[in-house]
Design goal:
Layout: H1 2-8, H2 11-24, H3 28-54, H4 77-86, H5 98-120, H6 151-161, H7 163-176, H8 181-194, H9 210-233, H10 235-239, H11 253-262, H12 270-277, H13 287-293, H14 304-320, H15 324-349
């Protein structure tokens, strides 16, 4: 879904980000029920989108109701960009097949996932039920940390024991890769979690209960989804209403540029960019001057790094709810106990 939103960068991409937020913040039993609705949504959307892209024959000379929202003619760049972002039919747009291909692949994968939900039962549900966030006795998975039976156990150690560090590094990369306000949020939340280290996973009710640990990680996931949604939604401003940052009465020019750069507002929609390549008119007469005086790196408006970070975060959250991570938490607790005892012994010797 995140890749689909990355490819689209339009209104349906923003809706897809909302779907992502619903699924990543819901328990698996809830996702299992909502997935039927999502598959129906995609199944209905796909043919409707195809009909919208094909549109009516130009020979009919039928004017769409939204053709002249921002003035005449209908081929005005602002009108066309507005239709592109909302996915509305427009005679001036040569719709590419990439969006339909991405939707078809997503519908195919979603249908396969629906089959998985039907057959898995409750085997893949979280091991924590009724808000009981404690170490579970009688772990059905053998201790792969203390006893490595094969080379696969070393891979398990890398994934389950050190995976949260790798995930935080990927999120940090998503933040370091930009200079916008969204990137700053990544850095702040990531260092907030890094600062507490493995103490987050020892299940000490006096310092950090595991419920609060999961809440911290869900905060990071929520921020990632929120950032993706904002970047996609701000494409409406960057592709249609960009002149606000050039001619906005009552706001100083430097302030307008600061706001634009803080939120990395620039049009990166692939269809709009393709029209620019073939010689489409600028969005407004002074668009080139605005881009020269107030530079924004287009890559910062993309959600590629955000989508990759989200993938790592969802996978890591899944690890936290597994039996395998219980062995890791025992190991973290043992390390802290041994370190404390060493300090006691050292202080007694001194």
């Amino acid at each position: 879904m995140a890749i689909n939103a990355w490819v689209r960068m339009d209104m349906l991409g923003a809706v897809m980000c909302i779907w992502i937020g619903v699924f990543v913040l819901s328990a698996r039993p809830v996702c299992r029920k909502l997935w039927y609705i999502f598959v129906i949504y995609m199944a209905v959307l796909f043919p409707l989108q195809y009909v919208t892209y094909v549109g009516l024959p130009e020979d009919t000379c039928f004017a769409y109701p939204w053709d002249h929202l921002f003035g005449w003619p209908s081929t005005l760049t602002k009108n066309v960009n507005f239709d592109i972002w909302f996915g509305l039919s427009n005679y001036a747009v040569n719709w590419p097949a990439e969006n339909l291909i991405a939707d078809f692949i997503l519908l195919l994968v979603a249908s396969c996932q629906l089959t998985v939900f039907r057959r898995e039962g409750t085997d893949n549900d979280s091991i924590f039920v009724n808000d009981d966030y404690d170490l579970k006795p009688n772990n059905p998975r053998y201790d792969f940390i203390a006893n490595q039976r094969s080379f696969v156990d070393f891979i398990k150690i890398a994934i389950f024991h050190y995976g949260h560090w790798i995930t935080l590094i990927m999120v940090l990369i998503a933040g370091i890769g930009g200079t916008s306000l969204f990137a700053l949020g990544y850095i702040m939340i990531t260092f907030w979690i890094l600062w507490q280290g493995n103490n987050l996973y020892v299940m000490n009710p006096l310092t950090n209960s595991f419920k609060s640990t999961l809440a911290k990680w869900k905060t990071l996931i929520s921020y990632t989804v929120f950032t993706m949604f904002c970047k996609v939604a701000l494409q409406l401003v960057g592709c249609v209403f960009l002149e606000w940052f050039y001619d906005s009465s009552g706001i100083q020019e430097s302030m307008r540029c600061t706001v634009r750069q803080l939120f990395s507002i620039v049009c990166v929609n692939s269809i709009v960019q393709a029209r620019k390549v073939v010689g489409a008119d600028p969005l407004f007469p002074n668009e080139t001057d605005l881009d020269r005086m107030c530079t924004v790196v287009p890559q910062e408006a993309q959600i590629g790094f955000d989508a990759i970070a989200l993938g790592f975060l969802v996978f890591q959250l899944r690890i936290f709810h597994s039996w395998y991570f219980q062995h890791c938490m025992v190991e973290y607790r043992s390390e802290i106990l041994l370190a404390n005892r060493w300090v006691i012994v050292l202080s007694s010797l001194c």
